[in-house]
Write a structure and sequence with these properties.
Helix content: over 70%
Number of helices: 3
Distance between the termini: 32 Å
Order of helices and strands: HHH
Strand content: under 5%
Radius of gyration: 11 Å
Structural class: mainly alpha
Number of strands: 0
Largest sheet: none
């Protein structure tokens, strides 16, 4: 995954990921942290994550981090 592809993924999925996190955690700062962590993990694993599966990867990471926070 290139930097350009990563930036496109951020543009495509950041709002939905934030709404998902905020709906479940109900604290703005924690929802932002969940989104940031998900994108950070995607970037760190960009060579191992299939571009077509990046959305599901992001939501899985966000969900797992959300559960850890709760």
């Amino acid at each position: 995954m290139s930097e350009k592809e990563f930036n496109q993924i951020v543009e495509l999925h950041s709002d939905a990921l934030y709404r998902f996190a905020l709906k479940n955690i109900k604290v703005v700062e924690e929802a932002q942290e969940i989104v940031q962590t998900a994108f950070e993990k995607l970037w760190l694993n960009r060579n191992n994550v299939n571009l077509e599966k990046s959305k599901s990867y992001l939501f899985r990471v966000a969900y797992n981090y959300l559960i850890d926070m709760i």
